[in-house]
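Subject: mismatched residue count in predicted assembly?

I count 223 residues in my input, but I want to confirm that the predicted structure covers every chain. Input:
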Amino acid sequence: DAGVIQSPRHEVTEMGQEVTLRCKPISGHNSLFWYRQTMMRGLELLIYFNNNVPIDDSGMPEDRFSAKMPNASFSTLKIQPSEPRDSAVYFCASTWGVGTEAFFGQGTRLTVV
Amino acid sequence: QKEVEQNSGPLSVPEGAIASLNCTYSDRGSQSFFWYRQYSGKSPELIMFIYSNGDKEDGRFTAQLNKASQYVSLLIRDSQPSDSATYLCAPCSNDYKLSFGAGTTVTVRA
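Triage response: the counts match. Full output below for your records.
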């Protein structure tokens, strides 16, 4: 398996634009997590899914952020409109069950100018 | 109160010494605990997990868990320069929630 795949690896966009980050979890995994990492706030859990259903989105900072998981092999995190303070590395991770190892994608480095 | 708190760093240790990392968590429903290592510019990777109270050893790493005190720690023995990284504590609750601490950055001096 290729592991968790995220795209794009780098994204530079202008303030106010819509940004969509994509994630393909490891085949057979049933939980998917979206995190945001900054120097100031560390690795923050934004939202997580189990069997494609959002379980907890309390970490989503604002209504500008939304996430979907239409099937077991794909998830998106959308920011609309984007702001400079959204600049961070966004990680997606997946696991196959409760209390099992989370495998991380390589992350998407987002810069909003 | 943060869900997961780790001792503030950076932690600098000489090569061959023991590095001690601490973590406390607020969710008493947490049942499994993970330590991840993250090199600069890379993704976190798992180095240890522990489910039961007590100690668990894996090579130069030892994890310790005390659920009553809501405390988990990681010891790195015979520290090597390659251990220089940020170490992240991550408790997992029964509802699948995997939260991370802010991390402790360890620097091993040659």
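The radius of gyration of chain A is 13 Å. Marking this ticket as 'not a bug'.
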